[in-house]
Each structure stands twice: as structure tokens, then as C-alpha cells.
Specification:
alpha/beta, Rossmann fold, 5-stranded parallel sheet
Length: 176
């Protein structure tokens, strides 16, 4: 029934649960899973803060999160208050990599083999990038978390998952 699924991930708990659903479906149908992470440059500072919270590291300096142990030295250096745009970009890449790796591990828990998992990183507006990627990849299903990291703006403007489900050319499963 499904041969190619798109799994947009942002590190939220809902995205983590969506990875489990995608993993279950992919193992049942032998489907390929495209793990997509989108960074919206227009919300870089907010995204950085929220991603850092998810990973339990902070953008305001490591001392703001004293319970974090064993943070790699290079990341700790990136978390200093006087961080440059380049440091913020490297931190976001580090966090995006952690988020994608966690999603891949979730897929593997459901016995989805590495040869059926692909990773795509894109910059831009999340809804547009998700929809464009679904078309480009000929996805027949999008599995997406119902709420991402930006719960407040989602409630005010309409969530990414809501807009994706109403605009996608393929089936969409929204996971709570």
C-alpha cells in the first residue's frame, strides 16, 4: 500500500512518536522512509532556542543548564553568550543531526533497514519544504507529528501539520 514515506522531524515529542508510526508502517509494507529536517532561517533564533531546550543544552550559555553532563567541548564553546552566526549555524547543524539520528534509531527499532532510510536536510518555510519534498520524492504518505517545537505560533497561525494535511497531494497521517 505504501512504498515511500516522508517523515518530517523537528525533535518534538510528537515527531518522535511519528517516527515510531512510520517505522511500524515501513516494516509492514517494506517502504522506504525519507527523514526530512527543515530549518526555517526566518525563525533561526527561536528555532535555536527550542532545539537546544529539546536536547537539554542552551543557547544562553552552558551555565544556564547545569544539569547537562558530558556536553562535547565544541558544542559547549558554541553555547557561549557571544556566539557568532557561524557558531549558531554549527550548533543548529549539530542539533539537527542529533534529531535526525534519534528518528533513525526509532525507525531501526521497528526493523527498518538502513538501505530503506534516506535523510534530507532543507532550509526554508517548513510547510512549503515538506510539500515540495513529498512531490519531489513521489511520496505516497507523509507521517508528521501533530505539534512541533513552535506550539504557540502553531496555535495562532495554524500548525504545520494542519497545513500539510490540507495541502498535500498524498495521504497524511498526523500523530499526537
Amino acid at each position: 500500500m505504501f512504498s515511500r514515506m516522508l517523515l518530517p522531524v523537528d525533535g518534538s515529542e510528537h515527531a518522535h512518536r511519528a517516527a515510531a508510526v512510520a517505522g511500524d508502517l515501513a516494516s509492514r509494507y517494506g517502504a522506504e522512509v525519507i527523514v526530512l529536517h527543515v530549518l526555517d532561517p526566518s525563525r533561526l533564533d527561536e528555532t535555536q532556542e527550542r532545539m537546544a531546550e529539546v536536547e537539554h543544552v542552551g543557547g544562553r550559555g552552558h551555565e544556564a543548564y547545569p544539569w547537562v553532563a558530558n556536553v562535547p567541548a565544541e558544542l559547549a564553546a558554541m553555547l557561549q553568550p557571544d556566539e557568532s552566526a557561524g557558531q549558531r549555524e554549527r550548533m543548529l547543524e549539530y542539533l539537527a543531526d542529533k534529531i535526525v539520528r534519534a528518528s533513525i534509531e526509532r525507525l531501526r527499532e521497528h526493523e527498518v533497514s538502513d538501505d530503506r532510510i534516506r535523510v534530507v536536510f532543507k532550509n526554508g518555510h517548513p510547510v512549503k519544504r515538506i510539500l515540495d519534498t513529498a512531490k519531489e520524492e513521489n511520496s505516497d504518505l507523509i507521517v508528521i507529528g501533530s505539534r512541533g517545537l513552535s506550539d504557540l505560533s502553531g496555535a495562532l497561525v495554524g500548525s504545520v501539520s494542519h497545513r500539510v494535511s490540507h495541502s498535500a497531494d498524498c495521504s497524511v497521517i498526523t500523530v499526537k
